[in-house]
Amino acid sequence: MDRRAAFKEIAAAAAQGKLAFPTRAELALKIRRTLDEPDCSLEHAAQVVQTEPLLAARVVAIANSITYNRSGRAITDVRTAVSRLGFRTVRSLATALVTRQMAGTPNDPELRRHAAELWEHTAHVAALASVIARRVSHLDPETALFAGIVHEVGGFYLISRAKDYPGILTGAPADWVEEGEKEISRAVLKALEVPQPVLEAIDTLLLGFMALPPVTLGDTLLLADDLAPVTSPLRRAPNQSREDPRGRIDAVIGEATLVSILEESAQEVESLTSALRF
Length: 278
Hints:
Elements: H1 3-15, H2 23-36, H3 42-50, H4 53-63, H5 78-85, H6 87-101, H7 109-137, H8 141-150, H9 153-161, H10 176-191, H11 196-207, H12 217-227, H13 246-249, E1 252-253, E2 256-257, H14 258-264, H15 266-275
């Protein structure tokens, strides 16, 4: 089966809700859904988070990041970390775990490398989107963080299906949207119950049209994606080098420039990126 036919088959199954998630992703999704329950208490949330060590570690790490720990007092337990972050951020982190584990554990070394690079890219985009939303586009930074976390979920799902469809991750990434990636991504995002504004922002990202300075959530996500120092391995040609984009996408923001704002926020971005590394 050629790549176009494979994409169509995967997209058709996804559109019907026939999504084959790896076991670890399914477990993480159950945790996320438990946290979504309206009567989930702080104590129960902490207990649920602690059932997944990776999630527990990231919740504490994020709570101790510069963004959420302005006082400098370190947190060492999950309950206090959940209390500091709030359920919304903890749900975003649970979704981050689902996204990271969507690729499963491929036997192919190249697919494992793709999954690791894709998550590194995702972590950078999520951290940058949060900071850009707060300091530049003046949008909700938590929504921007969440959008960054899930913006490549379709890519992780494709990595998980590569063992059943050899060759789907070869060739020119520019053709993927046409071949069904958008449909696959939307189906996975729907399964994760991603809100409509975030879906629309990810559609904007796939189309690639951005306003400067950024205004919408889609603009914010696109700018974060452009500025991320690690590119998606699924969107660059083999051996493609990464140029520094700041010189070509700088913009005046009030009395400052985009580049100067990002330089001031570099420590915050690095702190958030590090905390998101599952």
